[in-house]
Design a protein that fits this description.
By secondary structure, this protein is mainly alpha-helical. It has one domain. Helices cover 67% and strands 0% of the residues. The chain contains four helices and no strands. The longest helix is centred in the middle third of the chain and has 16 residues.
Length: 70
């Protein structure tokens, strides 16, 4: 299956995050290489993100923050 990365890059950050979320949710939980505790933590973080989307940082914001402390 071909994936058009140019088209994906044209999406907003929020649209790309939503796409990643939909892809992630389409993967059968049993096929994931995580322990039960890791999977629980992933689910907890996803719920937190969904409840607090405006508090999420963009990639550029994270990069700038990391550079400021380096």
């Amino acid at each position: 299956m071909a994936i058009d990365l140019k088209t994906i890059r044209k999406l907003s950050v929020q649209e790309r995050l939503d796409l990643v979320e939909r892809i992630w949710e389409s993967i059968d939980a049993e096929a994931q290489p995580f322990t039960d505790s890791q999977w629980t933590e992933i689910q907890r973080r996803l719920q937190h993100y969904r409840a607090n989307r405006k508090s999420a940082l963009s990639y550029d914001q994270i990069k700038a923050k990391l550079r400021s402390v380096a």
